[in-house]
Amino acid sequence: xxKLLKDGMYNANQIAEMLSLDYKTVQHHLKVLRENNIIRSVxxxxxxxxxxxxxFMANFSVFAEIWSKLEAGEKVFKPR
Length: 80
Known about the structure:
mainly alpha; 3-stranded antiparallel sheet; 54% helix; 3 strands; Arc Repressor Mutant, subunit A
C-alpha cells in the first residue's frame, strides 16, 4: 500500500482492486496508517483519496532505508 501511494492518490476501492485485497482489509490498514500519521485523506466520505502526510514525506528516506534492508533480508533492529 505504501509503494502504491508513493505513485499517486487512490481511494480505498482502487487500492483494494490494484492489490487484490478485500475492501474491509484495505479500510482497516488505511485506518492504521491514518492513526500513525502516515497518510491523510484529501476528501471525505465514500471515494476519499489518500496521500502521505508532510510528516511521513519528511522522513521518507528513513522508511526507504529500512524497507530496502528488509527486502534484502537484513536485520533492521538489533536485539537488546
